[in-house]
Amino acid sequence: MIGLTFMYKMFGRSPLVIWLARSGISSIIKWPRDRVILMRGTHRQRVFEQGLAFSVKNRYQIAQIDAMVIWEMEVLKRLRDSLRSGDVVYDVGANIGLTTIPLAKVDSESNCVFYCFEPDIDNFDRLSENRRINGLDNMILHRLAVGERDAAGKLEIAEKGKSGQNRLVTDEEPLDGLAIVDVQVISLDTFATQKQRGPDVIKIDVEGGEVGVLEGMKDLLGGDRLREIFIEWHEHALNRCGKDLASCRKSIEDFGFRQMWTDRRGSTVHDHYRRA
User: Fold this and answer.
1) What is the DSSP letter of 114?
2) What is the DSSP letter of 89?
3) The pLDDT value given to residue 239
4) What pLDDT shows up at residue 163?
């Protein structure tokens, strides 16, 4: 997948390029480029005509950023187009800032404020560094997990180099990752009440914890401020906890939101909802 992403970005999607990418040649081409990026310590990309820089320590992190430019641009464009001057945006599962950094950069003069939630310490440190090197003071960072209720929680740390797949777990769940760390969990209804700043736009990407996030934001869903919801569903994780995609979607639509767009990639589904 890393090779395919790189080759498509550099040379497009002709049959020859697809064959070369799948043959493994792209890994040879990428190797010297990645070495230069790792020696520099930052990976530079242009998104929305804005120059961005991301702190990187390994090739997986480089591939994460390459993939954002290839696979996540439709989501980013929809998020950007949904923003209005003065909006409050919640980024739940902010990771290293792959969503918020481009949006905060392009909207730096629109008075939007971005609240970022990321519980993993390594991701949070990189998120903080990425905010600093991009000179963004419209991002407010919280090292918190988001769930159904305010409590202590457990975060499963994914296989080394795949920090984008960390997830909240319960004591009963089978574990796939390398370790479990204790984290603080907060509901968005609690957070919004404490800050007295509910979101106009929210993005949720929590590796299967979507149901808990939605259960903990019913006041926001039923209020009149929240306007747009961007959510990434992980069907395999939903099924593991006895949920299905149709009922989860209905739980949003029952609050008066209408699905504007959807995109499926295997068991991962991106949805955009707007208040009707």
Assistant:
1) E
2) E
3) 84
4) 47
Please give the model's pTM, rounded to 2 decimal places. 0.85
Say which CATH architecture domain 41-275 belongs to. Answer: 3-Layer(aba) Sandwich (3.40)
pLDDT along the chain (276 residues), means of 10: 50 58 61 88 91 90 85 92 96 95 86 95 94 96 94 77 57 60 93 95 91 96 97 88 90 97 92 97
Between CA 275 and CA 256 the distance in angstroms is: 6
Instruction: Report the residue count for the chain.
Output: 276
Rounded CA separation 58/41 (Å): 9
Query: Which helix (DSSP H) or strand (DSSP E) does residue 135 occupy?
Result: none
Cα–Cα distance measured from residue 151 to residue 176, given in angstroms and rounded to the nearest whole number: 23
Structure token pair of residue 37: 């990026």
CA distance 158 to 175: 10
Tokens of 42: 């930052």
| Reduced DSSP (H G I as helix, E B as strand, rest coil) percent helix, strand, coil of the chain, to 5 | 40, 25, 30
Answer yes or no: are the C-beta atoms of 105 and 45 closer than 8 Å: no
Residue with tokens 């603080």: 184
CA separation for the pair 40, 132 (Å, rounded): 16
Backbone Cα Rg of the chain: 19
A 10 A CB-CB count for 137 gives 10
